[in-house]
Amino acid sequence: MYLLRCIECGEEYETDSLYTCTKCGGLLEVIVDLSNADFRLDGNNITLWKYRSLIPVKTDPVTLFEGGTPLYSLKTGKSSRVYIKHEGLNPSGSFKDRGMTVGITKALELKKRSVMCASTGNTSASMAMYAARASLKAYVILPSGKVALGKLTQAMMHGARVIAIKGNFDAALKIVRKLTERNEIYLLNSINPFRLEGQKTIAYEIVDQLGYVPDAVFVPIGNAGNISAIYKGFRELKEAGYTDNIPEMVGVQAEGADPVYKAFVQNKDEIEPVSNPETIATAIRIGNPVNAKKALQAIYDSGGRVLRVTDSEIVEAQKFLAKQGVGVEPASASSLAGFLKEELDYDTVVCIATGNLLKDPEEIIRVCEKPMEVSANPEIIEKLL
Ligand SMILES: Cc1ncc(COP(=O)(O)O)c(C=O)c1O
Ligand SMILES: N[C@@H](CCOP(=O)(O)O)C(=O)O
């Protein structure tokens, strides 16, 4: 059993059909019955649905075998043990699949025939893929010219109707919220509390894989759902008696899209939206993150912090990871960029790499040395080796 609770006024609802509190407009959180937990954190058979007893679905899930992503150790030259959780190895290439397996299952439970999202790319790629699997119609609204090609092509190929607007992600989300108000089309951005229930399993998996709770978890912040979800996962493990502590949740934002960072340094629990967000990491090019309040709560409650990194620090971290065999898109590298930038004293750190290298080929062409073009002559080529 589970219910929805408003994070602002505490109002509770026994329905699956709400995105926000009807009393005060606040964000909703799913409260699951932790006494139902029936998995062991023994490092075996790790997939998202291993943790089904704490995931609020009533029917068999629509799954493409998401989760169970690798936790790679990383050499950084610092004294901390550093791990990268490579969410780019999910079916559509990002952590969004964890949210979509639950969100699309919920759409079917609610007898919806169509789903919709605003997107900087990954949400749309994932939603389109899972909607196709479930034979649901998918509608995507995105900022024209600002979505990486790998992601756009996924949404197109999986059959979504893609509508590009002259406006940024924040404007697209406003439109989606309006168009889904009447409840015919199911909204699948992270304001949907069920989406975050899938994403919280990142925390479960980290403890399952490591065998203990790390000191800190670094997470890129865009719309601010993932850091909120991961914190909730750690909180539930503690409340259910699996663990004794919660890691510091460290959010990382890009310099040109930093409303959560600014709120944190001013010790506020609300953001001031950034009107023209800009960064090379298009996935986190968001000025008015819808889950900012949840994220700030997670950061303050866990004793964490928010860091800010420049585009060149993001690209450096992306190359640093690539040199150790871990291919990620720019936004994903911001978590490590934050860790590398600061002198922070942790024994064990996990950085979340949120999306795959293949998502944004144009950025790679811009930041890497171009292939050399020569005639097909082995002698000439040998001289270049
Ligand atoms: C690759 C990638 N990293 C990070 C984020 C930010 O996650 P969130 O919006 O949950 O803060 C997103 C999208 O939101 C993303 O696509
Ligand atoms: N980066 C995201 C932005 C939307 O985030 P969501 O988690 O609220 O769906 C994307 O990939 O579109």
TrEMBL record:
Pathway: Amino-acid biosynthesis; L-threonine biosynthesis; L-threonine from L-aspartate: step 5/5. The keyword Membrane does not apply. The keyword Lyase applies. Its cofactor is pyridoxal 5'-phosphate. Residues 62-355 form the Tryptophan synthase beta chain-like PALP domain. It is an enzyme of class 4 (lyase). It holds the Pfam family PALP. PROSITE patterns: DEHYDRATASE_SER_THR. Its EC number is 4.2.3.1. Keywords: Amino-acid biosynthesis, Lyase, Pyridoxal phosphate, Threonine biosynthesis. It catalyses: O-phospho-L-homoserine + H2O = L-threonine + phosphate. GO terms for molecular function: threonine synthase activity. Catalyzes the gamma-elimination of phosphate from L-phosphohomoserine and the beta-addition of water to produce L-threonine. NCBIfam families: thrC. Belongs to the threonine synthase family. This is Threonine synthase. It comes from Geoglobus acetivorans. The lineage of its organism: Archaea, Methanobacteriati, Methanobacteriota, Archaeoglobi, Archaeoglobales.
